[in-house]
Amino acid sequence: MKIRIRKKKLKDKRESLYLDYYKDGERYYEFLKLYIERGNPNNKETMRLAEKIKAERMLETDFSRFNKTNPHKKNQSFIEYYEKFLSTKEKWSNYHGAFKHLKNFVGKDLKFKQINEAWFKKFSDYLTKEAGLKPNSSFIYFRKIKEVLYKASAEDYIDKRLVKDAKNPKRGQTKRGYLELDELQKLIETESDRPEIKSAFLFSCFTGLRQSDIRNLKWKNISDNSINFTQQKTNDSIKIPLSKTALNILNSKNVFGFPETKIFNLPKDRATINRTLTRWFKKAGIDKKAFYHLSRHTFATLNLTFGNEIYTVSKLLGHKSLKTTEIYANIIDEKKKQAIDNLPVLEVSK
User: Under CATH, what is the fold of the domain 73-165?
Assistant: First the structure.
């Protein structure tokens, strides 16, 4: 790629320096905020600075083309990069929790060039042995750090292969809570002091939608008795057919929804939602920990219980890997075992 330094005459008779180049078939101009002025003794130094910037841009292009790390970017702070990234994420996101442990581990700063195979191993050991975290939390936080590094690798800060080869901490055996059908019926029949939260939670129980997707769901996403939307977590488009129960929940709102109007208006504070769910569960006589994501677990378990194949359930949940859905299949196996154990014991004569 050729990069040229060009000059643009200004009204005050100065000349503004800029770079002129083509990238991916498109022409770009980068104004350098450097100026040449007749008779100015600093003109030569200004031109040398422009040439230096030009050389840096050519180097960045070459490293990007050959999938190598940019030496200049390797010296940048990963901590500062992560902080900028965090500004785009909600405060309850696991990225914030991961960053807290990252800062505790590295202290003041960490440059990209300091991250290598040995660093990943030490950080993994810190999360699993020193940070006082459960195995699944260690796994999640480690993965979040890797996700940010993957993003940085696409911008030539770090070698993508290094991030890819970093081994994740071992994940613990996950036990997913869920609601039985009779418990759902109790909740439906029990009033909540926050009807909007009740309505949204039940809708998630019969659609599998995450709380983040429920927050963004608009009436325009409902068509032909299906939900069509893009998942916030994965950025994947998904279509979920609506069951009669899910449609009844929408119809019970008894409002005319404009396309851009949100269907559910949930409080911003997740703690408020979970406290509301706890009061509602207690009132309904359900002795289980109440949290919003329980609705998604319930949707998966109900579908598998009533015979839907695991591949279909995985697609309905928007899982990228079938292994994630297999956790719910283990729940069904346990339920089958319990069903057998509950059978009466009969004496059989010889």
Answer: DNA polymerase; domain 1 (1.10.150)
